[in-house]
Specification:
The complex is a heterodimer of chains A (about 100) and B (about 180). With about 100 residues, chain A is mainly α. Chain A contains 3 helices and no strands. Helix content of chain A is about 75%, strand content about 0%. Classes of the chains: A mainly alpha (about 100), B mainly alpha (about 180).
Chain lengths: ~100, ~180
């Protein structure tokens, strides 16, 4: 509970669950959820280094806030793209979204 | 010490709470990835992110833990639920699982995990020689507006552009095509 490697292993496990989901899912929203899991693994990593190694405990918190802000922006864009794709091909399965023409 | 006092030992309670938080995280992460019903995935994601907020609490930052709840659970998960409601109806047939793909994904994930575990256990982690212990939100706010000013401004611009882009993409593309 109080060692750096415990948290690093938790973060690595979260990250690989995200990788597994991203590769295995075919629904676009499912892939988005997997990406959120990977971003959270990275955040836990930053906070763990911040707690145990960093000279100044502010840096990791700023980074984690930065990741959260970008995750929010990324989700907004991705969801609007998903809705646009759904209106066009009436599916959110990526194997049916092969056409890049606008 | 009587057994009852032993039960409420702060150290033991902290370890139990940590175990609960970690179980929340991994159960949620697995629910977020494995079931094919997309609504279960979102509920699992909420569970997992709550657990990650608890881990942040154990890592010393209550502020980041609250932000995790507020931004991820409160904003991102709810917007994902909205996207689900606006897209495919849930009662339509679920796509069949493609087994070779699942096993391939499992293999790749296992490979990545092996690499990460090797890196984590081989690296000699050295703490910084001088470490400040100032965790207060006041200092964080002061740093965000002075030394890490650029982070704050880039985040604001990116969020503004993302919201405008989201409105543009989802608002006009359907009308133009229909």
């Amino acid at each position: 509970m109080n060692s750096l490697t415990t948290y690093l292993f938790i973060a690595a496990a979260l990250f690989i669950i995200g990788v597994f989901g991203l590769l295995q899912r075919r629904s676009l929203i499912g892939m988005l959820i997997a990406i959120e899991l990977m971003l959270n693994g990275a955040s836990v990593n930053f906070m763990a280094f911040n707690r145990f190694l960093a000279p100044d405990p502010i840096i990791g918190q700023v980074y984690t806030l930065f990741i959260m802000g970008f995750a929010a922006a990324e989700t907004a864009i991705a969801l609007s793209i998903i809705i646009a794709v759904f209106r066009r091909i009436h599916s959110i399965n990526i194997e049916q979204a092969r056409d890049l023409r606008g | 010490m009587t057994p009852l006092q032993n039960l409420f030992d702060p150290q033991l309670l902290a370890q139990a709470a940590f175990a609960v938080v970690v179980i929340f995280t991994f159960t949620g992460a697995l629910i977020a990835v494995l079931p094919r019903n997309i609504l279960y995935n979102v509920l699992g994601l909420i569970l997992c992110l709550t657990g990650v907020g608890g881990i942040f609490l154990f890592l010393g930052s209550a502020f980041i833990a609250l932000m995790e709840l507020l931004i991820y659970v409160g904003a991102i998960c709810i917007s994902i639920v909205f996207a689900i409601m606006l897209s495919r109806p849930l009662h339509l047939s679920l796509p069949k699982r493609h087994l070779p793909k699942v096993w391939g994904a499992f293999g790749v994930a296992l490979l990545v995990f092996g690499v990460l575990v090797t890196i984590i256990s081989r690296t000699p982690w050295q703490p910084a020689p001088v470490r400040s212990s100032d965790w207060s939100v006041t200092t964080l706010g002061a740093y965000l507006l002075t030394r890490y000013d650029l982070v704050f401004e880039v985040m604001s611009i990116v969020l503004l552009v993302a919201i405008l882009g989201a409105i543009l993409i989802s608002g006009t593309s359907g009308r133009r095509s229909s």
